[in-house]
């Protein structure tokens, strides 16, 4: 089957979403109580709630900070199309009775990752879970890029948009910055969107949106998972430092062990075959992350599909 035929088949799959009342949303969140907050950002707040005895995540937008309300409706549209993928936070429905629609999504018990790639409970994520998260989000982004007639670019891939369920399955969310590249085109031009530390420098300077925008951001996410550091962290003297710059600096002096979170080596004892296998995985993971962020521009990654395949191979090294 040709790629185009495959795309048409996939786009035909729909995700019917429900319409909830404001009373249901208010009851589920205890009138948007602070005690129900999962995470809070400038543009929206995620709440936990229960509707019809089912736990859900509810996304409430802030009118004050949004300059373009169409982004909210884009989030609903793309979330609905993506909900068939197991590594996407499934959209159940929405409520249209507030100033802006409230989204009702499946509940992910561990919530979104923190800026440094951890979870809210403070539990340290073992290496196999970090690798699993990267592999699963890579498949989700690949689906976003390839499953529809037009290539859709996320433009906001970062740890806080990755939810983790009770089985440690990773779920990509927040599609409001998405932009489509028309068939036959290599890029579209648009104003720069994204989070500091995750924005592709080429995109920043040219405003050209390509698949490389997501590949770069995903590479930074990999570095966050590997290092346990945020994309921008306080360096010496509390000076803000880019994780990408820090990794590049360390690589120049072959300081591999300075990059890797020491927790990754836990449970391996003093050495042996397990340590050798773990180290081979971690080194391969770092090499792939560096290719994604185009370190030294040597052997850059061509697509998210390539990244997803590489991560599956790295996982099989164990």
Automatic annotation (TrEMBL):
Q: Which InterPro entries match?
A: Kinase-like_dom_sf, Prot_kinase_dom, Ser-Thr/Tyr_kinase_cat_dom, WAK-like
Q: Would you say which domain of life the source belongs to?
A: Eukaryota
Keyword match Cytoplasm: no
Q: Which residues form the Protein kinase domain?
A: 32-318
- Mind telling me which Pfam families this protein's record contains? PK_Tyr_Ser-Thr
Keywords, ordered alphabetically: ATP-binding, Nucleotide-binding
Locate the coiled-coil region(s) and give their ranges: none
Protein name listed in UniProt: Non-functional pseudokinase ZED1-like
Q: Which organism is it from?
A: Camelina sativa
